Amino acid sequence: MTTYTEHITLQTDKRRELFYITPRIGGAIQKSGITDGLVMISVLHSNAGVFINDDNPGLLRDIDEWLEKLAPVRDDYHYGSTHESNAGTHLQGLLLGGGATLAITGGKLELGAWRQIFYAELDGGRPKRVVAKIIGV
Amino acid sequence: MTTYTEHITLQTDKRRELFYITPRIGGAIQKSGITDGLVMISVLHSNAGVFINDDNPGLLRDIDEWLEKLAPVRDDYHYGSTHESNAGTHLQGLLLGGGATLAITGGKLELGAWRQIFYAELDGGRPKRVVAKIIGV
Amino acid sequence: MTTYTEHITLQTDKRRELFYITPRIGGAIQKSGITDGLVMISVLHSNAGVFINDDNPGLLRDIDEWLEKLAPVRDDYHYGSTHESNAGTHLQGLLLGGGATLAITGGKLELGAWRQIFYAELDGGRPKRVVAKIIGV
Predict the structure, then answer these.
(1) pLDDT at residue B85, rounded to an integer
(2) Which domains does chain A have, with CATH numbers?
(3) Chain C residue with minimal CA distance to B111?
């Protein structure tokens, strides 16, 4: 039983940007040499989320519009009165969730046929970090 | 320290169906021989969710209606214009979350007094799969 | 590779109360002697959630109001007709999520610069419990 850690830095140029990170996570699993266990992916910033879904442009746009509908980016949050104006993106990060834990079996990530791992940057413009921790045999 | 994997196939006959899977997860823990560690349960399809709550018919109906209120199954999502018409169930799956990680202590699943594990099929009609990965001593 | 378990009891006096539990989780990691691995935190009641976000009073108030907006505590849920009147707090617990899994690297919890771990009691007034399970080397 062993562990392996990989920090992934994402160069976010825009405020809002979606990163398809399945290959980065798959690469980390390969480097770890772990063929059976868990991989846990966690954001290290609150204005971001990790989610798993099918890789379809229309669907990803639906997800983005849904986040904005349920947790609109507005100016009138309490947070904005004393601090930053990005409370809406904090709420969107809570809605998506800040991490995911997945199974590794037979050396492969168990995602299912169509699912992919996405990192959603909700308030970017600077480098952001994600940690992947792999634990298993 | 060891790992144990169980794939559970759910025969979903209806579009929308709720499965009470606590006994299946408990059985997998027993078979694993692991008495202290973690069990991670993950859907392998995007139109589904795993959630933990009390097993009460009224409450489960409230949860179902709440999903439909916050992420309605409608025809006018972007996804539907080029692909499948089930974008709403993808959003409901995101809302519930596609997995859960729980503690195993003294050979038992730590759920609390009333909580149970549910698999929510949101767009069924064919066999669906869930993976449970157990890791510990 | 080893495991360590800590049960944390929270004395909730009010119905709704927020607990800043980062120091308790950090203390459990230190006691465990585990310097690389995972910590999984899980509620043991459905009317509660664990979430991670920045520790700012305005932001925490925004989160509380957002929970109430998306999952209002009302009297007309199905659950209330036969059982308890707290279905809204069950939905808020689902929205926040009942647990979190985080990385431990170099003996430290990987949260990022500003993020803290919070336990949100949504229907308190009696002692409530959380379990932290640590697994690693």
Answers:
(1) 83
(2) 2-57+97-136 (2.60.120.460)
(3) C44
